[in-house]
Amino acid sequence: MVSSEPLDLAEIDPPRWRIMTDDVVYGPYTLGQMRSFADEDRLRENSKVADGDGGAFIAAWDHDDLKLLFSPSSPPEAKTEPRQPDNHMIFFRHVGESRAAALQMLNQLGKFAEMMPGVYLLSSAERTSQIRLQLAEISAPGDQIVVVNATRGRLAWAGLGDDTDALVQSIWAPKS
What we know:
By secondary structure, the chain is α+β, with helices and mostly antiparallel strands. Helices cover 28% and strands 27% of the residues. The protein has helices at residues 9-12, 31-39, 64-67, 99-109, 128-138, 162-171; strands at 17-21, 24-29, 48-51, 58-59, 86-93, 111-116, 119-124, 144-149, 154-158. The chain is globular and about 60 Å long.
């Protein structure tokens, strides 16, 4: 017999997970959303995650429900395979005095070239989200950063504003 009541997905997969990035808390998210974040490399084993409102923020790997989203064989410390370099295009609009620091950071991240002012090609084994994070840490207020991983179809950005964040998220479809 078919029920005429609508299915309440919140009962099946409730939004209970919160993620802390740069002292900012995001969420709550469902386990399905967390799986998508892990697939997109936006959630990593060492990401700070809380289960429920007011829960302690600990590494995602330390949550039994989230361990399944990562490599089933071993915790992150045991992974030894080096990543192969990916091709990235970085757009960095320097408003402040961060250009010299950005060039130094790119040099540390891998092999790079500046194609035109503020547009860089980078070959690096570092994850796209980490490149954005490291560049954001040395950026000045008002700087804008977009990192495109041309190898994996990933996108990361900082300093674009809430309206642009929502617009990019509505358009960019991560590579599966």
